[in-house]
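#lab-general

N.A. 3:47 PM
ok so I finally got the sequence cleaned up, no stray characters, all 191 residues accounted for. can someone with queue access submit it? mine expired

B.Y. 3:52 PM
send it over

N.A. 3:53 PM
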Amino acid sequence: MKVVGIAGSLRPQSNTLYYVKTALEVLEKDGIQTELISLRGKEIKPCTGCYDCTRQNCCTIEGDDFDEILEKIRTAEGLILGSPVYLSSVVPQMMALLDRATFVAYWNNKFLAGKVGGPITVARRAGHNMAFSQLLLWFFMNGLIVPGSTYWNVGTAGKGGAHDAEKDTEGLETVTNFASNMAGLMKKIFV
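B.Y. 4:20 PM
back already:
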């Protein structure tokens, strides 16, 4: 079994990356293979709505990192999406990835359905719930199974990537519980 964790922050000292890594470490300790993907340094062009994916089993937009990331998502049983929250929503580079992934998956046997995963959102002060809901709706729309935790998977950290996520004990505990529940659910489904 494998879980891909994607961190949508473009900052070098990313708090979002820290939360996603924390979740992946829990899964690794539970014997599940993981891979971390940072969107920092990656280019993901937006969906153009061309519908070529309905005829060709892939996205025909070329010249970016989408295909490589989509193939990793396609072959994994689990998916964690982490997004920083700047303006009460998921960051554009993450949404570009998710929009295109949805189109390709939907028209090609809905290959995201049945995977296990969930969102993590990180903000300095507010906006977590809007972005968390946005990602949660993406998981539901694509048929992924989302385990719960002890609270929503939101972290509080901020000030320009000052790497202060490690101070958010409640947020880290929530993410740890989520990852533990995810591991347990995956073992029940895929073993």
